[in-house]
Amino acid sequence: MTVSVRITGSIATLLAGTVPALAGPDNPSDGTFGHMMWGGGHGWWGGFGMLLFWGLIIAVAVFAVRALTDKRQGDMRDPIEILRERYARGEIDEDEFRRRKQELQS
User: Which residues form the domain of 26?
Assistant: First the structure.
């Protein structure tokens, strides 16, 4: 699964989760502040839901930035080990191997 598919799926899931919050009445007739404030009956759960929502938005944004800017080159390998591999494959001769090994060890 590619990174762009994961990001798109995560954003779609977050947006789909906001639909029930948008479905409430805009102007309640009982004089309260509506379903997003304390008067709506949600109490502390409303605040927790808001923290959870924004936490998820920030987490998806961080994940997207890291996934798109990840430039890791892999594990750092020992230069002498790479030199040995090149010698074993025949890319360099014995004199070249010894000269470069001496340079690396100095």
Answer: 3-69
